[in-house]
Amino acid sequence: MQAETFNALSIPINATNLIEASAGTGKTWSIAALFLRLVLLERIAVDKVLVVTFTNAATAELKTRLRSRLDEALRELKDLPDDNASALLEEIYTQKNAAEDAPEFEPFLYEVLQLALQQEAASRVRLRLQAALNQFDHAGIFTIHGFCQRVLREFAFLCQVPFQISLSDDTAIAKQRIAADFWRKHVIEDEQRARLCFEHNITLNDALNRIQNWFGRSEHHIQFQLAQPSHALEDLHAQLDELAQAILLQLEEWKISFTDMHPMLNGTTFKLPTYLTLFDDLAQWLPRQQWHKISSKEKHILNLQAAYLQEKTKKGQVLSDTQLNQFAPLHRLLDLCLSLKTEQDALFDQLHLDLYHYLLPNWQQEKQRVQQLGFDDLLTDVAKALQDEKYGLHLASYLSEHMWQVALIDEFQDTDPLQYGIFDTIFRQHHKPVFLVGDPKQAIYRFRGADIHAYLQAKHEANRLYTLDTNRRTHQQLVASINALFLNKNKPFLLDDIDYIDVQAARADSRLLPNDTPLEIQCLLQGDETYLNKEQAKPRAALYCALDIARHLALSSQGKLQYDGGPLQAKHIAVLVRTHGEGELVQKELRKEGISSVILSRDSIFACEQAKPVLSLLQWWQAPQQQGLLRSVLASDLLNYRSSDLMRLNHADSQDELIGWMEDALQAQQVWQQRGVYAAWQMFDKKRGISADFLRRNDKRGLTNVQQLFELLAKEESERFGAASLIQWLNEQVSQQTHGEAYTLRLESDEELVKIVTMHASKGLQYPVVFCPFVWDHRDFKTSEFNIVHQNGQVRIVSEYCLSQDDEVSLIEDERSETLRLLYVAFTRAEEKLILSCSLLKDNGSANNVLHHLIAGEPDHSWEQTHALWANAGKDKRVWYQDLWLQWAQKYHVNLLWRPEQPEYSGLIQQQIQRTEYTALQTALPFYRFQEYTSFSGISRHISHLAMDELVPEIDVGELQDDQVVLDEETVLPEAHEFDIFHFQRGTDAGLCLHALLEHTDFQQSAISQSDVYAPILERYHIDESWQPALYAMIDATRLAHLDADVCLADLPPEQCLAEMGFVLNVNQFTAADIQQCLLESHLPSAIKQAAQGLHFRDVMGFLNGFIDLVCVNLDGKVYVIDYKSNHLGMLPKDYHTNALNLAINDHHYYLQALIYAIAVGRYLRSRHFDFDAIHIRYLFLRGLQPASEQGVWRWDIGIDELDKIDAVLAS
């Protein structure tokens, strides 16, 4: 179809019309002009013209522009008499355009008024305009969702929806509830699906996110191409189990055999440690049925095939048939594992399809029940109503005949099949005039559900095609330069029917002076470099961009660069980036040059650089003893510690500083409990000067983000109960990078600053000078688990496993096309000057860059042909690359400036920034209910006079006291050179080290075999190698010590053990008097009962939290609660006898800790419906343990009746 130039006065008002408006060509002006014509010349009431756009902001702007059009027309007709009105209007038009100081009388407005006066008298035209203004509040100007809501509300019966419906901006919770029902019925109770989800970590939220974009399409037109399960999983698992048992019996023989064979094999292909590790891995994976891990070793297993082994045997060497064929079971194992993966992939597809089909009808019922709709439901319900066999035709007819006579659809390039289907059914299929206005070159919102293929379908079905071909934003030289980029290819956007119009500019000259080269290319390659990798190119691009901006501002300060008659200022400059991370790189470099900037983004606040550090900060406040969390916080943007500062904390003389940080965290924890999270942040910020440091670094963006995050946390806190719940909420938001109006990055005061804008967010904006420093970058395309494939007019949802080669080609083409469209949007934001950074990337990455596709080769070259040019570029690619750009510029007569060197500038940069006065926001403080949040360490602080016991809860009071041990003069000590567990260092670091070693121990394996696991732990705590034998002996003694006569940790499989079990225990009343009574009635030794009567601590109402070193269940179902104690009770094994252990338990009130642990484990097991008779407490005093002995083990068995009685007291 041949496109015509759009003229609002001559275009026929009938049929379906597609108006393609290139960037800057006056799309909104054209809609307003057409609206005025419809009111004046077609005499259509304003409430009979439907105007639809896609955002609230665009709707508000359209309303303002349309009302202004009517106002302007009425103003020009003011006081005109009915007689000779046309001649008088012509006289006014001539006078206004001749006078220099008079407001312009727009030619279009003059022409439409003259045509109106030819139809009726001036007074009548004025009356029509006044009536339109009076009725304007009833005009049909909507967002797409507002339009659908109007239809559903006024035609509830025909749409078959409740008459009273409310609109919710978040229906995710309700949908998740329905999905949870599906999960319980069809996943948890299905052994195969439950196993799949467990092995592959598939959660309900993950599954919902994967199918989210399935709901944006009519269910009648959606086609699925997914893998189909063959129901062979049980048989495959049976075969795998049988084969695994046989292989386990042969693994040790294979290791010996392969070691013997290895000298005869090619050493490059067969590295002995690699294959010995393979056999060790199999020994771990096969008993645990971790089949998916075996598939990852496919290459190494295939190498063990007989033919390949024979091929890789060294000359002169011969392997026997037995040696060659011994690994055949492994190949069978691999085949079964790959078959299992195929079946699991099919089961994965079917699971998501079933979830989708379960959600559809149940969500429809739920909407009817609660009479509530989400925004997406508005579209789907209207589309469904229009397709209904009984009422659909009647509804569409009434809407087109009686509601709206003509439709103007703005931003149509952002449509999707559902939206286009609605307007197509109402207007095109009923032969009513509809004007679809948009620009396919600016279709960049696929991630929001927009579908360029829906636009192209509308283009194919339209009766007439119009274009706007005059750019009113940019001067001719820059317009010609951008034209040249895209006109260098016949299909610049790769897809058919996305044409590039050779637009002209309404303005000849630039307002930026001097500006002889409005298009500049900054080359990132320097010296002898022929390419860069991305890690080199990104920081360099940010640096060069900042230096060039500084150069522009320096020239302006010297009077050598002007914009629109005045100096070029920072506010006239924008940097366009793909991601927020790229923007932060540029902002940091600008900060170094003393240039203030602001990042304008529609990104989520939870995706910002400060979100994870704030999460770590909250987690650390709740666990001050976790040095890993502390170091994470210190190294983050919040506290900005350097690596040297972190290394300093490892030294013994920095312990006071570490303790100071822990004390601050404890104080923040207490303030949080009593006054809320925001008060805790204010206290911590004031004490550590975080906000002041952000300002000192000129990082207002970072400070704004942190403040916004804590304000959101304070708001969410009122809806949640306890710190753990709030931390969990923040963790979920950061993981999912949740979007929403309330979660959008807050803008700083930006009027006078350099703007850093994502390309997506820049659409609709314009800036005098634009920098695009990262357009050289290339991202490899990756398929999703489920892909929307457009091919031959059909739309299919295809799983990753079912994608054909043609499907992948189609997906890659769509991806590249959108990237090209994104570049078009970015380049056309520039009014006066555009500066691009370019580079050659390592590993042929530049050949896949879409910008390079535009400038290389001939107009009719395909992507593959252009790609081939890079392979034939010769050795000196840098010169070839520069020539490529210069030849392109010469071909199209573009004044291109190629900058091969790093930008430089001299002189001061004067930023003319207007000072803004701010006042504090007055807000009501939230009500906080006091709930104490403490632990055994917190309680024991009130029992013991030691202040450090709350700083490191894993290390008890007794272990800290070991820092100073007074020895009996008669005690015989080993020589100083002896390294045994009794001489091993004591105190905080020693205790943490011993706990860390045991936390990472597989108790079924000897300590020496796990030395690789222990090495980084010993290094972290600066433990000398000489201590390793003593520590390994202690670990083996722990493994083999008798918990009971016939039970030791070495007997328990790993899946029956849970290390570092965290708990939060709700206690309504935890008092010393109640605990004393419970202990008095227990089976503890009498000495401990007597000591417990002196127990005193303040009452606790709220939560007790902590971590249990180890919880395990033996094969008979006995539940053991294990706690490691590094207390030093003496220098000989006999010093760790039962009475000594009782004394230590007594002195440090460990019986109270054991009681808390028992209650926590009991509640946990009951919640899992696990039957048990007792909780068996075992405190292992590590320095006194002996293999196959009960020495060093303190015991307390708490029966279930006793436990129930204690628990009832706490819950009362």
Q: Brief overview, please?
A:
With 1212 residues, this protein is of the alpha/beta class. The protein is 48% helix and 13% strand.
Overview of this protein structure:
The chain is of the alpha/beta class and about 1200 residues long. It has five domains: about 5-70 and about 135-165 and about 375-470, 3-Layer(aba) Sandwich (Rossmann fold); about 170-370; about 510-600 and about 750-860, P-loop containing nucleotide triphosphate hydrolases (Rossmann fold, 3-Layer(aba) Sandwich); about 610-745, PCRA, domain 4 (Orthogonal Bundle); about 935-1210, Alpha-Beta Complex (Lambda Exonuclease, Chain A). Helix content is about 50%, strand content about 15%. Strands 1-10-2-9-8-3-4 form a seven-stranded parallel sheet, with helices on both faces. Strands 18-19-17-20-23-14-24 form a seven-stranded parallel sheet, sandwiched between helices. β8, α20 (about 415-425) and β9 form a beta-alpha-beta unit. α23 (about 535-555) packs across α24 and α25 runs antiparallel to α32. The radius of gyration is 37 Å and the shape is globular. The N and C termini lie far apart (about 80 Å). Residues about 910-915, about 945-955 and about 960-975 have low confidence and may be disordered.
